């Protein structure tokens, strides 16, 4: 099967009206995609979880990718305090099964990282299931890993956020750079780059 690409989607911040569309998006994910992203295959989402996924949590940034009139991808970052003045942000991304491998996840990560960098974040934290070799390989290919810890079924990875866009990393844009072009650069994530929402 050849590489599939789409260009007709937009990335924006979710709002209160997106609660039900986010719930429908989560319900439409395959059990495998839900498991890789949230470490559980359960399709249900509590109202509290949906509020957080819509960006309602403290120190939480959320984005949705919208294509064909529906949510086809979700990304979020949760900032937290770190030692020595470090400002880490934990990121997570998931893309609807029908749109995986088509640049949606890459575009979401680019925007999420740019926004985190604009907020002053210095480090990105990713929790990935140890069995998710594809995403672990992508992280190794695209991030300069500072620290890695294995705990049970998942691995936690810390990597520095670059201060400026690098020529060898075209998938990291400057903040507010437009337009997003999901067909450029390498895929940064598949479904489930990090652990569940907290």
Which features would summarize this protein structure in a list?
alpha+beta, disordered C terminus, 198 residues, Aminopeptidase, 7 strands, seven-stranded mixed β-sheet, 5 helices
What is the level-2 CATH architecture name? 3-Layer(aba) Sandwich
- Count of the domains: 1
End-to-end gap: 37 Å
The average pLDDT is: 78
The CATH C-level name is Alpha Beta
SSE topology string? EHHHEEEHEHEE
Strand order of the largest sheet: 1-2-3-4-5-7-6
The major β-sheet equals:
7 strands, mixed
What is the number of helical segments per DSSP (H or I, 4+ residues)?
A: 5
Q: What is the strand tally?
A: 7
* 3D shape: globular
Task: Summarize the amount of helix as a percent range.
Answer: 25-40%
CATH superfamily: Gcn5-related N-acetyltransferase (GNAT)
Work out the strand percent. Answer: 15-25%
Radius of gyration: 15 Å
Give me the secondary-structure category: alpha+beta
Characterize this entry briefly.
The chain is of the alpha+beta class and 198 residues long. Helices cover 25% and strands 25% of the residues.
């Amino acid at each position: 099967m050849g590489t599939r690409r789409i260009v007709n989607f937009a990335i924006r911040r979710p709002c209160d009206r997106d609660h039900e569309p986010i719930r429908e998006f989560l319900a439409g994910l395959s059990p495998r995609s839900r498991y890789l992203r949230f470490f559980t295959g359960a399709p249900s989402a509590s109202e509290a979880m949906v509020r957080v996924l819509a960006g309602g949590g403290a120190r939480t940034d959320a984005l949705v990718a919208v294509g064909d009139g529906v949510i086809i991808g979700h990304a979020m970052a949760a900032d937290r305090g770190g030692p020595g003045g470090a400002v880490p942000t934990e990121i997570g991304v998931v893309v609807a099964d029908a749109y995986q491998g088509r640049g949606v996840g890459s575009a979401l990560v680019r925007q999420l990282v740019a926004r985190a960098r604009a907020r002053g974040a210095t480090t990105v934290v990713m929790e990935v299931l140890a069995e998710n070799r594809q995403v672990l390989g992508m992280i190794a290919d695209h991030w300069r890993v500072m620290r890695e810890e294995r705990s049970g079924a998942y691995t936690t990875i810390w990597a520095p956020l670059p201060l400026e866009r690098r020529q060898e990393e075209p998938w990291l844009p400057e903040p507010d750079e437009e337009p997003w072009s999901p067909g450029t650069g390498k895929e940064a994530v598949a479904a489930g780059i990090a652990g569940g929402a907290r």
